[in-house]
């Protein structure tokens, strides 16, 4: 996967890193939509690709992509592999290099820096994936901008907790090459594996959605000593984005010894284009909870981002910089995608006049110019005419000492139209007896306006997530919908 | 000067930072050539500007630029100022901001990223300055590329030893703003002032030509303890470029406690586009002298540099990567200038087919892809058909314990055509009695081929330098020329 980030564009082709956790049907849709000619696959996903190829329509079958298999001597879970897979494989990756490779090959430079370089299907907090196309110019800008903004030193040791198929790992395949970094990969991202890699390899940097931070914070007690006692006694830097991190999670993971940087971006911007630039000693002096609250804000435009604004949906004008008035976050800059593949309509809806990208995220602009996300447009709960930010309710839920994860969605309400419905998992799965939904509702009542308090609160062992660790709100929204409307005066479930 | 790097381009104008150490005649030539409309000047240079304006031809006088004076309450050396200066001044800088400024002003974005942003007159190892024009795009690339390549952390403390009028301080006015750096400025760059600033302000980063490194190394004994005992016990990082640093100087300045990074660029590339990327532990293990020798190589292209090569002047083809065959260094990339102002002929000579910039520097390509400069084209000494690199001879001279600075130029020779002529200053000015030219010639004989040994060696108290600390070889070349040709068998002077 790492090598393809170089070899594929340098051969003049477009790289489409596919999420290996998708199902065969979706993969077949992507292969057809992208018109892929060649698939490079690891044994762990060979069955998936075989099934996907079988699902291609018969006419398309003749044009089915060729399959190159990456042999993996350390991969031992392939006992269940069906031998019938093999006839799909044209050759192995090493054979391809050995037999078809040319050491004198001059890499194919793009005719224009605007030529497409990568295709990324949105991993989907919605169920309809779209093919985001980025050009060489955008990837270059993202790479150098990210290194400069995160202040990545030379020769870091980088742990791949963020998959490379997610917006090309926020450009770090190229970035790590640029600074001479060491790449450490994991078969499976667990807290134990991360702490072991930090101790064994002296990991200095890793990326992940807030769910990864939460996992590390919740599992620190057994292994927290590995961070200071690791091979190198360096701070471990975590860059987080992909969802608004609850301040309580930031505070917990920093208490364990990680140094968190927080930013914001979309697949449509190839990675982070907004960064919560830290104001040094001025903010260092504040109490931990205030620091976490400031760090939970998405931040200011990075150098590659020409402009950002929060606009009123009706008028298109910027909202007041008061930290309260909600609007849609829009931005312009060198990292905005060329567009969605084969979808001019969606492209026109996303990129409007003068190149402004409409992100679909709802936020506020603080007086100091920092943007803070309140919600995805579709996640805003509209209750009796009031807009309720699900993110705000969640951040209070995360503050409860027993809560591991929380997600709030709209549930129909007979009187108010919608009311907040919270899904919560507990840190200690056996604690469900001692902590009740009513306890947690009561915690909310003490900390937010009455109209924002969840009317429904459901305990679940786990919350449904995308492969990149984003909670799938559309799944929860369906669950809440299926519960039927709450009635006036109904008590908590 | 720092503010103008933002305000001038953001008002839609082009910034031309003028070297304040030039004479009035040259400044008047630059003002006329650039068609300057506004001059912002510090009291220390007001007399210079007045004289320059007087030298503008009468017709041009009507179009003479308006003068804005930066008042400086801490500047006390203006007793000699002529009151007649004042009538040239339109208003003071603070008045300009106060009376003409508009807090609601929307800064003027360039219509195209290729629009000119800065004009830099080459400071001149030759005596004919040319006006290098760079665009917004190039300045952006240089800024982020330099931060990423030098791995500048957030909120560094940067000491301005490199003047901002020299290729816009290699883009660090913008770079320091981007990372929230603290800028420390000096009235006059002396070793004592630099060490004092490190101790007082906790300086973490500074830039300078090798002559600055040499100054710091030679004056370390009196104040070396200030580095470890400074306000912050951080390494002080020095970025050097502008001339090939002798390995002996690198070794000395690192012994004092500085960490040196070395790169290469030209005014025509807006700063450093080649960087001696350090190969980590592989090179850390080597003895100090080997490390210094490796670090003295100019290096590999940075991320903003598309390609670099060393080509044969006759054929235009790349020379063998053997570290021996000399050729002209050529490069392409996003930081190459738009061209020379009002000088299409010089532009065409510098930027040739497909955007290759011909640097005029002679170098070799090492087998590992690192470029090393051997000389400026015009500084190569051709003796009996052999090309002698003045830089190579100088690096041996710098190795002599008594030598402070050395410069080698061609002197005519009746038999060989040219022979090396060395100008040397000693660390201890009073040591001239105990160390003789013959001692140093003898040191050279033990360390280089016979034909490279200087036939003439002259002790001087100081070597002539440009304002940016480059030794003015054209001055020395004239001195050597005026000595007349050496004869076969002539002994050392």
Automatic annotation (TrEMBL), chains A, B:
Q: What cofactor does this protein call for? A: Mg(2+)
* UniProt-listed GO biological process terms: phenylpropanoid metabolic process
**What highest taxon heads this organism's lineage?**
Eukaryota
Q: Which InterPro entries match?
A: AMP-bd_C, AMP-bd_C_sf, AMP-binding_CS, AMP-dep_synth/lig_dom, ANL_N_sf
Enzyme Commission identifier(s): 6.2.1.12
Q: Which UniProt keywords apply?
A: Ligase, Magnesium
Q: Name one GO molecular function term.
A: 4-coumarate-CoA ligase activity
> Signal sequence: where?
none
Q: Where is the AMP-dependent synthetase/ligase domain?
A: 1-341
Which reaction(s) does its UniProt entry say it catalyses?
A: (E)-4-coumaroyl-AMP + CoA = (E)-4-coumaroyl-CoA + AMP + H(+); (E)-4-coumarate + ATP + H(+) = (E)-4-coumaroyl-AMP + diphosphate; (E)-4-coumarate + ATP + CoA = (E)-4-coumaroyl-CoA + AMP + diphosphate
Q: Which SUPFAM superfamilies match?
A: Acetyl-CoA synthetase-like (SSF56801)
> What is the main EC category here?
ligase
Q: Which PROSITE patterns match?
A: AMP_BINDING (PS00455)
Give residue ranges for domain AMP-binding enzyme C-terminal.
Answer: 392-470
The UniProt entry's sequence similarity note says:
Belongs to the ATP-dependent AMP-binding enzyme family.
Query: Which PANTHER family does the entry link to?
Result: ACYL-ACTIVATING ENZYME, ACYL-ACTIVATING ENZYME 8-RELATED
Protein name, UniProt field? 4-coumarate--CoA ligase
Phylogenetic placement of the source organism? Eukaryota, Viridiplantae, Streptophyta, Embryophyta, Tracheophyta
Gene from which this protein is expressed: gb20422
């Amino acid at each position: 996967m790492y090598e393809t980030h170089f070899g594929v564009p340098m051969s003049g082709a477009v790289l489409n890193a596919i999420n290996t956790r998708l199902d065969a049907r979706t993969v077949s849709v992507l292969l057809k939509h992208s018109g892929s000619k060649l698939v490079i696959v690891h044994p762990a996903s060979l069955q998936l690709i075989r099934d996907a190829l079988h699902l291609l329509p018969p006419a398309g079958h003749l044009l089915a992509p060729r399959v190159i298999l990456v042999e993996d001597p350390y991969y031992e879970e392939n006992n269940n592999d069906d031998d019938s897979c093999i006839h799909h494989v044209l050759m192995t990756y090493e054979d391809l290099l050995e037999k078809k490779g040319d050491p004198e090959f001059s890499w194919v430079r793009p005719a224009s820096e605007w030529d497409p370089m990568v295709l990324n299907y949105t991993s989907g907090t919605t169920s309809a994936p779209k093919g985001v196309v980025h050009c060489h110019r955008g990837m270059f800008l993202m790479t150098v901008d990210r290194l400069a903004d995160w202040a990545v030193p030379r020769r870091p040791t980088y742990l791949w907790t963020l998959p490379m198929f997610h917006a090309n790992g926020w450009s770090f395949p190229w970035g790590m090459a640029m600074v001479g970094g060491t790449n450490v990969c994991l078969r499976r991202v667990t807290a134990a594996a991360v702490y072991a890699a930090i101790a064994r390899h002296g990991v200095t940097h890793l990326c992940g959605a807030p769910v990864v931070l939460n996992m590390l914070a919740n599992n620190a007690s057994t292994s927290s000593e590995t961070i200071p006692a690791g091979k190198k006694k360096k701070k471990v830097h975590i860059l987080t984005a992909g969802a608004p991190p609850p301040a309580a999670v930031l505070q917990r993971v920093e208490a364990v010894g990680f140094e968190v940087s927080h930013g914001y971006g979309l697949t449509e911007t190839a990675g982070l284009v907004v960064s919560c630039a830290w104001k040094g000693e001025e903010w260092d002096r504040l109490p931990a909870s205030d620091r976490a609250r400031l760090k939970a804000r998405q931040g200011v435009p990075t150098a590659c981002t020409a402009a950002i604004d929060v606009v009123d949906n009706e008028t298109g004008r910027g909202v007041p910089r008061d930290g309260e008035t909600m609007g849609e976050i829009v931005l312009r800059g060198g990292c905005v995608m060329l567009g969605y593949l084969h979808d001019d309509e969606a492209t026109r809806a996303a990129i409007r006049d003068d190149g402004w990208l409409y992100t679909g995220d709802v936020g506020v602009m603080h007086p100091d110019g920092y943007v803070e996300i309140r919600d995805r447009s579709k996640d805003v709960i509209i209750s009796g005419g009031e807009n309720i930010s699900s993110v705000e309710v969640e951040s209070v839920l995360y503050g409860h000492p027993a809560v591991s994860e929380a997600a709030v969605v709209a549930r129909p309400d007979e009187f108010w139209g919608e009311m907040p419905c919270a899904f919560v998992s507990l840190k200690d799965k056996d604690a469900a007896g001692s902590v009740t939904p009513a306890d947690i509702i009561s915690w909310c009542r003490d900390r937010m306006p009455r109209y924002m308090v969840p009317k429904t609160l459901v305990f679940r062992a786990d919350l449904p997530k995308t492969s990149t660790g984003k909670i799938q709100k559309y799944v929860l929204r369906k669950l809440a919908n299926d519960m039927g409307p709450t009635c006036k005066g109904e008590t908590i479930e």
